[in-house]
Amino acid sequence: MRIGFDGKRAANNLTGLGNYSRSIIAQLSQFFPQNQYLVYTPKMKDHAQVRHFMATKNIEARFPKYRKFLWRTFGIKRQLIDDQVALFHGLSHEIPVGIQQTGIPSVVTVHDLIFLKFPQYFGRIDRWIYTLKCRYACKHADRIVAISECTKRDIITFFNTPEDQIDVVYQSCDDSFKTPATASVKAAVKEKYQLPDQFILNVGTIETRKNLVTLIKALKNINPHYQLVVIGKQTAYMKQVEEELKAQQLQSRVIFLSNIPFQDLPVIYQLSSVFAYPSVYEGFGIPIIEALYSGVPVVAATGSCLEEAGGPASLYVPPDDDQALAKAINSIIEDPVLSTKMITEGIQYVQRFNNHIVSTELMNVYQRVFSQ
Fold it and tell me: How high is the pLDDT of residue 66?
């Protein structure tokens, strides 16, 4: 059958929802090659990640033929009919308005409802648009995919969605995180970024919700032989981070990296000693499973879905408790037995997020739609 996807993120975003979209479609293409996968996008970024993704023979791009203005919201429906699409999957919180009138069933993935849970992190207009689109999709899609049990609970709470309309399908991550780098590659990446021998790693946009300031506060009580490496795009929140670094006189212990080529990121994970992720709230937490696949012990925050991603072998602390965070990180770096145990059990746990499992569960959702 032909399956259509809202491919704007897959064709243009190089992180986050873009990685999720490309990963999902590529996995379906690999494990269910009998189908054709159509990626509907108003444009396509000229980048190696996107070109590699689109090179798969049963994945094809579709660009606007009719009314380019608000095409993903309205005009796309005519093309879906023309292309004889059997099912449409909105990969990021929205589906075309009125798609239910075309006879084409639809599925929508909801990653998180942080814009409702923590509205202070979003502008009023953005929050209104996100809410409008997501509420509509959850009301009219034939089935809803939540990327965690936490997100499923939020959908039920905020939109009064019947529980039996929601399927939890976790995410995986790129296969490069599952492949150990050679010693020579590790040495080259370490030299390229002037990385220390021992460091704690944090990956994610430097924004309020990611809670980097708490990690900075914890750093003063962490073994001084360990530095902190932070990888992520900077926002206005960076000013608070810099102020905290200055107040604690820790500038020399933190290395900030951005615009890291994707092929180098798994290697940096593998070079780290501990992965720290004190985010206040997430829909799932892909960096955690990237760390687990990379063989790195994880310390994360309680209060959202991170326990689902990290499993029972990882350590969790309240997101505002820098003392507990420091204690957890020290317990790992000072106890090789604990570190090894966390790595071994973490790798075992994270196998539930392997590509074939995720793609099979998603295909089961599609089959459920057809049987409704």
Answer: 76
pLDDT at 238 over 90: yes
Q: For domain 175-352, give the fold.
A: Rossmann fold (3.40.50)
pTM attached to this predicted model: 0.92
Q: How far is CA 304 from the centre of its chain?
A: 14
Is the C-alpha dihedral spanning 358, 359, 360, 362 positive or negative?
A: positive
- Long-range contacts of residues 118-125, Cβ cutoff 8 Å, at least 24 apart: 118/209, 118/280, 118/281, 121/207, 121/208, 121/209
Average pLDDT value for the chain = 95
Architecture of domain 2-172+354-371: 3-Layer(aba) Sandwich (3.40)
The neighbour count for residue 211, using CB atoms within 10 Å, is 22
Q: Read off the pLDDT of each residue in 207-230 and give the average, rounded to a whole number.
A: 97
Q: List the structure tokens of 299.
A: 């310390």
DSSP 93: S
Task: Rounding to the nearest 10 degrees, give the CA dihedral for residues 137, 139, 142, 146.
Answer: 60
